[in-house]
Amino acid sequence: MTTRGLALINASTAYSQGATGNGIIVAVIDTGSDQTHPDLTGQFTGPTHDINAAERAAGDIDTEGHGTLVTGIIAARRDGLGIMGTAFEASILDIRADRAGSCAEPDGCRYPVTDVAAAINYAVNNGARVINLSLGSEPGNDQTIENAIIDAAQRGVLIVVSAGNDAEPPTTDENGNPVAAKGTSVNSPARAAGYTTSLGRVVAVGAVIAGGNSGTPDTEDTGRIAGFSNRAGSQARDAYILAPGQGVVSTGPDDDVAFPGDPTNDPDSIGDYYRVSGTSFAAPYVSGSLALLLQTFPNLQARPEDALRILLDTADDYIDLTPDPILGTVAGAGVDDVSGVGLLNLGRAFQPQGAQTAFFNGQRVLLGSLMGAPGGAFGDWAEQGGLFEGIALVDRYDRAFQLNASAMSRAGEAPLANLRARTASLAGETRAVRAGAIQLSWHTPKLFEDRAAPYQPEAQSQFAATFHFDSGEVAAGRGGSLPQIAPSASLISEPGMPGLLTPAASWASVRHTFGPVDVHAFTSADETSHRYGAGIGRTTLDWTLRSSLETLQDEETALGGAVQSRLGEDNQGRLTAWTGEGAWKPGQGWELSGGFELGLAELEGLDARGVYTSRWSLGASRGFGPATLTFVLAQPRRTERGLLTFETVTGADTSGLLFSERQISLTPSGRQLNFETRLRWQVVEGWNAETAAAWITSPNHVALADDAGVLWLGLRGRF
To answer: Sign of dihedral through CA atoms 26, 31, 35, 37?
Structure first.
């Protein structure tokens, strides 16, 4: 059995996140509760505190069980037997404030204003986080209770007040004179919800229909505002919320107490269950909901107004374009005088609100920035190292939600070369000229017209110039990359490295021979990176060796990938590397070549230490008359070791967000290997053909990534 209202407010979403209300004290200021009811045993902080205990006679009880009914909706135990309260593990501070003997009077229980004020003060002094006031009267001049509510709110307590059950449409009296509608705004003390002095910590609660009186929910009327419920009015509309309050089920006194002598009563003497209606029974749904929020997000306890604001902001807008019978106006979109902010919805209240951010080293990082595809030297470092495991996302209210680490990855594309750009380059115009010691060449890629593009920039020409002298040479160029000995795969791109088709790169190199040793220096730069270095080498008729110390500064990526951007900084990387490359002609038309790079990387803006990288390639080629066959095996740059230390939010407690220092590895899960075979041959005089095939295993250094491949066939001639 349920209270019938939990489904209407989507409470299951809160429960799925572990919300129970445990540890939160909710004060119920009412007629006292039956603490022996099976669903309520163990749910109280102690015996009922009776404000009027000195005047109370032994048999002075509320036979209607109003307080017990209210308490059951808040905190009835979840035991699978009776009903379940909204915050079924909250603790109830039970306070009785009705005047002695008043519950036996024809007009029912009455609450002296001074006694309610005293009860509110008692609740605050005894640890209540939430106070439920399912009581009220038509507004008057006495503000004793409202002043006590304001004082409690200013001391950090949330107060939930029923709006009132006085709503009646306008009519005429027996003489035909018009009688104004009643309940057009909230009663006292609920009107305190509209006071600025309440600091946003007081809420008025109206009622909607939870189900029909027959026991079967009336699907047509469920969720409609109850006819008896006071409307929001203009003053309290921003702090007025609707909750189930008609046809709800809760705990009550034994039927022999409620209906003495009724022949249908059961034979036992324990508490029973009743279907009831009234804003008195809508308010405890809100009180219980606040307890759930304060327990699940404990840092809200220091900002209780935010807990209430969450409920108000996430309420379902109540829209009814039929004029309201009480106010005569429609409940339109947004906050209105009929329904206030709308119907309580815990499903939305327990979802992150606003932009979700993570904290890294004190910086807020938007959720979208955390996502990234593997690539470059670091590959899938974030997933392999467990960057997002245990990290909490924070919403606009600084509530901590556990991040779903598996949802943070994006599939990376295999780093295959841009075949369109390759085609444009090979189909372009090339010229070369040599005059003595000077050699010049230039190349303009072909511009393929894209009719769908509003604008296409002109193709950028590439050029190279070399000056040879007795003991060396000087070379410079724009486009492509520095000449190299080590082989590379032409159909596979390498993020973070300039490619042969890069049009904006410029480069220069110098080589000088001192006896058997060559000394060389070089530099290259494009819009986002700068590379420079120097080294020594030696060249003979059959072999060439070269070793260099070089530096690469990348201003846009972390060595071809994303590291800093996933932690709130700008991607950039600096690599200091020792490189070696060489080639050997063993005879019979063969040429063997290879190269390696061992680097030490720096990631500016992060505490990343001991980041070492490797890169290597091997190649073999052989000429067969007019044809050349080439094989290449290569590993692009990969991080071999490295540790990243950072501080992040992992949760929250009553003191605020919890920050923890974490350390993870920067190495990826796999190792990418590139295989390529090329065959180039002369078809006829002036015409050359090329066919190539490339295969990539563990693309982007992701162990479980699907292999990828590409085939190429080209024909080029002179006109």
So the answer is: negative
Give me the pLDDT at residue 504, please. Answer: 63
Domain ranges within the chain, ordered by starting residue: 11-349, 419-436+444-457+535-717
Q: Under DSSP, is residue 608 helix (H, G, I), strand (E, B) or coil?
A: strand
Report how far residue 324's alpha carbon sits from residue 229's, in angstroms, rounded to the nearest whole number: 12
Cα gap 687→716, rounded to integer Å:
6
Q: If DSSP codes are grouped into helix, strand and coil, which group holds residue 130?
A: strand
Asked if the model's pLDDT at residue 217 lies above 50, the reply is: no
What is residue 582's predicted lDDT score, i.e. its pLDDT? 96
Q: Which of 262-271, 311-320, 388-397, 468-477 has the lowest mean pLDDT?
A: 262-271
* pLDDT, averaged across the chain: 89
Q: Please say whether the beta carbons of 520 and 544 come within 8 A.
A: no
Assign 3-state DSSP to the chain and report helix, strand, coil percentages, each to 5: 15, 40, 45
What are the structure tokens assigned to 181, written together? 């509608």
For the ranges 452-461, 536-545, 648-657, the lowest mean pLDDT is seen at: 452-461
Q: How many CA atoms lie within 13 A of 262 on its CB side?
A: 10
Mean pLDDT of 698-703: 93
Which is it for strands 438-444 and 529-539: parallel, antiparallel or unpaired? unpaired
Amino acid at 244: P
Q: Which pair of structure tokens corresponds to residue 57?
A: 């006679």
Longest dimension (CA), the chain: 126
> What is the reported pLDDT for 62?
87
Active site residues: 30, 66, 280
Return the sign of the alpha-carbon dihedral for residues 552, 554, 557, 560: negative
Measure the CA–CA gap between 184 and 168, rounded to whole angstroms. 9
Q: Mind spelling out the 3-state secondary structure of 15-53?
A: HHCCCCCCCCEEEEEECCCCCCCCCCCCCECCCCEECCC
The pLDDT value given to residue 158: 98
Look at residue 699 and give its three-state secondary structure.
helix
Q: Which of helix, strand or coil describes residue 589? A: coil
Question: What architecture is domain 11-349?
Answer: 3-Layer(aba) Sandwich (3.40)
d(CA 328, CA 350): 34
CA–CA distances in Å: residue 461 to residues 430, 447, 458, 503 = 10, 11, 9, 7
Partners of 375 in beta bridges: 379
Q: Where are the alpha helices (DSSP H) in 79-164?
A: 113-125, 144-154
The answer to whether the CB of 567 falls within 8 A of the CB of 366 is no
Query: What is the 8-class DSSP label of residue 504?
Result: S
* Paired strand residues for 91: 25
Q: What is the pLDDT of residues 279-315, one digit of tens each?
A: 999 999 999 999 999 999 999 999 999 999 999 999 9
Q: What pLDDT is attached to residue 363?
A: 83
Structure tokens at 286: 């809100």
